[in-house]
Design goal:
Blueprint: H1 6-20, H2 29-70, E1 75-79, E2 85-88, H3 90-96, H4 100-103, H5 117-128, E3 133-140, E4 147-158, E5 164-172, H6 174-193
Antiparallel strand pairs: 1-2, 1-5, 3-4, 4-5
Helix pairs in contact: 1-2
Length: 196
């Protein structure tokens, strides 16, 4: 539904005033002013209806976005100045192995395995310069030194007065890495014993 133009609103309001009041359009100045006030009142009512409808549509769109964001199978992180976590979805919290509420305000880099921190810092610098792609990094989860392999991409965006922010997308590829390693071992075993 498109927003009506001011002229369309005026016509609808005039029509509603005529439907509500049986007498013909006023001839005296006081009657004209009263008529104009009635028309403006109805215009405001129509605009209020439209605003209420638009607000309901925006709320539904926001709720759909939040559901898509929160229940996405990949981890989304929004990083502010100094790499502070501003926002993350449920997959991001699962990837880091912690509750989401305890992560906001911390630094994503603190969850990057020490062997990958330098590469991750370079990735963040490149992302701030406009080229944010990283093939793999390691993220440490709380249940020991079990690293999780991830692919990461980042996109720079402006966040008003907060300055530039990064949106980082990470995807757990541990199962893929394990399957690839197993496949390579199988090939090595096969070729070791295979005689042409």
């Amino acid at each position: 539904m498109t927003d009506p133009t001011p002229l369309e609103l005026r016509r609808r309001a005039e029509s509603l005033v005529q439907q509500r009041a049986a007498p013909p359009p006023p001839a005296l100045e006081g009657d004209r002013l009263l008529h104009e006030l009635q028309v403006h009142q109805i215009e405001l009512e129509l605009q209020n209806e439209q605003l209420t409808h638009t607000c309901a549509e925006l709320t539904a769109l926001r709720d759909r976005y939040c559901d898509l964001y929160d229940f996405a199978p990949v981890a989304y992180f929004t990083l502010g100045a100094g790499g502070l976590l501003i926002e993350l979805n449920q997959a991001g919290a699962r990837l880091l192995g912690r509750e989401r509420e305890g992560l906001v305000g911390g630094r994503l880099a603190q969850f990057v395995h020490e062997s990958s921190r330098e590469a991750f810092a370079a990735f963040a610098d490149r992302a701030l310069a406009g080229d944010g792609q990283m093939e793999e990094t390691l993220v440490v989860q709380p249940d020991g030194a079990v690293p999780v392999y991830v692919r990461a991409q980042a996109r720079l965006f402006a966040n008003g007065d907060a300055g530039p922010c990064l949106r980082v997308v990470m995807m757990d590829i541990s199962a893929l890495k394990t399957a690839n390693d197993n496949l390579m071992r199988s090939f090595e075993t096969f070729f070791r014993y295979w005689q042409p």
